[in-house]
Amino acid sequence: MTREDGAVSQIPTPQPDRIGPHADEPHERSIGGLLNRLRAAVLGANDGIVSVAGIVMGVAGATSHRDTIVVAGVAGLVAGALSMGAGEYVSVSTQRDTERALLDKERRELAEDPEDELAELAGLYRDKGLTDALALEVAQQLTAHDALAAHAETELGIDPDDLTSPWQAALASMVAFTLGAALPLLTITLFPPGVRVWVTVVAVALALAVTGYASAASGDAPRVRAVVRNIAGGLLAMVVTYLIGGLVGRGLG
């Protein structure tokens, strides 16, 4: 661009590290990962609350014996926590294996045909709106810095240095489920027979309100709708299992 005095003004060139996979907020990927883990923990706790509340309410509908309710509740807590942990481990392990396979494929392609890979990366940046020249320059600089990371983040949406740990995911699921399950188990066993069911219903409803709100907040979804839906689902589960427990208890008696 030429100014009126004849001098050529300098147009700032976009910095490569602000383009492409890094164009958003500097820590958007980390924040997104944290929110996903928080949401998973909230949902795990929610599962623990509803699952064990249903179990202990069903048994309470069949019998008033505290020991029987405790045994059923503890069994449900342990089985549910182990199931959640195992399921999360298998799921994340499969995801991690897939990500590693994709990264290995990308490494081979970079080693066998680096020119085509560079052209492919530049094409991805052109698709994001950069000019041909700038897209090629960005692709060249990012390739020189870390070719695998550039391709993995832009093509695959994977951070090679931040693959999810299946053991961490399994442990987090187990802990979240256990914490959620502990609430109905404690209320149904610690309070006297005359009020234990109602105390459990109120405690579970309040806990589900909290988890529903937290889940919605972590995903920036409507809070009230999520809270109402969560409480309604939990109450329905408790009512159904209590009634079925009562019917089974009378049938066996």
TrEMBL record:
CDD domains: Nodulin-21_like_1 (cd02432). Its main location: membrane. One of its GO terms (molecular function) is manganese ion transmembrane transporter activity. Coiled coil: none annotated. It is found in: Endomembrane system. GO terms for biological process: intracellular manganese ion homeostasis. The chain crosses the membrane at residues 40-63, 69-90, 169-191, 197-215, 227-248. It is a multi-pass membrane protein. Keywords: Membrane, Transmembrane, Transmembrane helix. Residues 1-28 are annotated as: Disordered. Residues 19-28 have a biased composition (Basic and acidic residues). One of its GO terms (cellular component) is endomembrane system. The keyword Transmembrane helix applies. This is VIT family protein. It comes from Nocardioides mangrovicus.
